[in-house]
Amino acid sequence: MSSTTKPRTRAGKRALQKREPKLEENPKRLLVLRASKTSQVAIGALRSLARLKAPLVTVLRKRNEVRPFELGGEGPLEFLLQRNDCSLFAIATHAKKRPHGLVLGRSFDGRVLDMIEVGVESLKTPEQDTEAPKRAGSIGSKPCLCFLGDAWAKVPHGERLRNLFLDFFRAYDLEEVNLAGIDQVIVLVAQSPPRSVLETVESDGCGDLRILFRHYLVRLKKRAEGDVRLPLVRLEPAMPWMDWRVRRTRFASDALMRQTMPTQEQLRAAAGSTLPRREKNVKYDPARLSKVGKVYLPRQSLETLELAPSARPRKRIRTGTSSATSPAGTE
Amino acid sequence: MEASSIQVDLGHLKVIDNRAVEEQSDIDARASTAVQRLVDELFQLPPDTAATEQVGFGRVVRLPAPIERLPREKPLPKREQLQTRWERFAQAKGIQRHKRERFVWDETSQSWRPRHGGGKARPSIHSKATEWIIEDKEEGPPGRNPFRRRKGSPESRKAAAGPTASVKSTKATAKRDRVREAQQKLSERMKSAKDALDHQLSIAQRSTASMGAYDRRIDGERDHRQRGKSRAGELNTPSQYASERKRALQVADAVLQGIS
């Protein structure tokens, strides 16, 4: 936020304070918007995503001229992200060349960080789920995330893609969780494209990757046998279900990613006070006239101690003196 | 093996199964296994009893820190640069600036009134400060002022008030002087630390059987041994003859007088 506007009202001040950079950040909000051309499928997918992300979601009803993958085309998107204080976005698009598109991404400091465009190949929305129309996870509960498939690790940028989806769907950062509230899981399955396709894909490597989006409700049942303290998990299919085909991608450079993830040291520095460090190992005399320091020397080795210059003839030690006082080796 | 291919990140409630999924029909079973593993690990976390009681249902557990790192949404907040020494001190001490409240509680009207200005809070008429009528219980000639009588004589007032400000201040001054004197002494002692070192060195130098006669000295080390003062002998030079003669005559005088 490089906004230099000064609030004129108290409410305005509070509103700006809410969106200031913080040490402990607010949960990331999702901005849901439609590009200038959309399709029913794309909008259906968008709506179901918005419902899944509620209440951390801001839905824009009107169409917007956003073409994030075109050169310099992310400007309007970044403006909308800043204005709505969102850092995740989902855009429904439709074009003859790329039908039923969905652009999913995240931003850092109001700038687009990572984004991918997927084509929605099949979609089952909650409205179509005639079997159990009322089934849904409780709104706003933190979903479990399950990543299946070997493609996440195989495909270049696959791990980044997984990281993006984790960021996208994780909702809140929790320190504590009520186990009774674990009621939904989002399953993302990555299927590698056939080898022939992999070789022809030029840019990012995860083009043509097939991602299956599945949403289940988690039912915890009592176990009849075995360790009865651990419940038995049963998954019930809940909509939306989507099959995606990855089209265009744009990932941030590793250097930029490092910038977005501060080190522990930087976090401490940001959290710490501005006081200068406490002076250590320095003492003053009571009148503060002089500084007293300690000089640390390594322990002296008595083995190699040379008590008298070896070149000179040694004085004979009288027999009366105890040998205990003369270190070994002098005799 | 299945167990090793599943990785759990409890902090994110995330579970990964790295094996390939060939058929769509496999997804249900594979997801169930993975989530079962996640739930097993969650239920093995120690429960937070206090939080659970507060919620009243279920079982609250404390999650470990997430393993996978995610980018921040915004950069770290910039630290406010504290310019003055006072600001830094105030921060360290937790001193916060706050304005004096404009409104104060008014006992008389039992309401909040402005501290100053129109309609301001006033002390109660029943309070001592604004006592305007008292009963004259004392017997005596009429016309005596009961307020003045209650106030007492100037001497008794003085005695009741304790030491005056000037006395207190003298005491404080005396104390301050004592402290200063002690500080002064200390500082003098510190200034003569070099002398003290020399003294210590001279003792050390004399502390061998030979009184330090055969000790080797470090480069630049002065000889601090105190030597006995040789008695100043008379100089045997012609300029001293007069005084020597005078002394000899004095002795002779004394002898002669003593004898007589």
From TrEMBL, chain A:
<feature type="region of interest" description="Disordered">
    <location>
        <begin position="307"/>
        <end position="331"/>
    </location>
</feature>
<dbReference type="GO" id="GO:0019843">
    <property type="term" value="F:rRNA binding"/>
</dbReference>
<dbReference type="Pfam" id="PF04427">
    <property type="entry name" value="Brix"/>
</dbReference>
<feature type="domain" description="Brix">
    <location>
        <begin position="28"/>
        <end position="255"/>
    </location>
</feature>
<protein>
    <recommendedName>
        <fullName>Ribosome production factor 2 homolog</fullName>
    </recommendedName>
</protein>
<dbReference type="GO" id="GO:0000027">
    <property type="term" value="P:ribosomal large subunit assembly"/>
</dbReference>
<dbReference type="InterPro" id="IPR007109">
    <property type="entry name" value="Brix"/>
</dbReference>
<keyword id="KW-0539">Nucleus</keyword>
<dbReference type="InterPro" id="IPR039770">
    <property type="entry name" value="Rpf2"/>
</dbReference>
<dbReference type="GO" id="GO:0000463">
    <property type="term" value="P:maturation of LSU-rRNA from tricistronic rRNA transcript (SSU-rRNA, 5.8S rRNA, LSU-rRNA)"/>
</dbReference>
<feature type="compositionally biased region" description="Basic residues">
    <location>
        <begin position="7"/>
        <end position="16"/>
    </location>
</feature>
<dbReference type="GO" id="GO:0005730">
    <property type="term" value="C:nucleolus"/>
</dbReference>
<comment type="similarity">
    <text>Belongs to the RPF2 family.</text>
</comment>
<feature type="region of interest" description="Disordered">
    <location>
        <begin position="1"/>
        <end position="22"/>
    </location>
</feature>
<feature type="compositionally biased region" description="Low complexity">
    <location>
        <begin position="319"/>
        <end position="331"/>
    </location>
</feature>
TrEMBL record, chain B:
<keyword id="KW-0539">Nucleus</keyword>
<comment type="similarity">
    <text>Belongs to the RRS1 family.</text>
</comment>
<feature type="region of interest" description="Disordered">
    <location>
        <begin position="109"/>
        <end position="128"/>
    </location>
</feature>
<feature type="compositionally biased region" description="Basic and acidic residues">
    <location>
        <begin position="174"/>
        <end position="198"/>
    </location>
</feature>
<feature type="region of interest" description="Disordered">
    <location>
        <begin position="133"/>
        <end position="247"/>
    </location>
</feature>
<dbReference type="GO" id="GO:0005634">
    <property type="term" value="C:nucleus"/>
</dbReference>
<comment type="function">
    <text>Involved in ribosomal large subunit assembly.</text>
</comment>
<feature type="compositionally biased region" description="Basic residues">
    <location>
        <begin position="113"/>
        <end position="125"/>
    </location>
</feature>
<feature type="compositionally biased region" description="Basic and acidic residues">
    <location>
        <begin position="214"/>
        <end position="224"/>
    </location>
</feature>
<dbReference type="InterPro" id="IPR007023">
    <property type="entry name" value="Ribosom_reg"/>
</dbReference>
<protein>
    <recommendedName>
        <fullName>Ribosome biogenesis regulatory protein</fullName>
    </recommendedName>
</protein>
<dbReference type="Pfam" id="PF04939">
    <property type="entry name" value="RRS1"/>
</dbReference>
<dbReference type="GO" id="GO:0042254">
    <property type="term" value="P:ribosome biogenesis"/>
</dbReference>
<keyword id="KW-0690">Ribosome biogenesis</keyword>
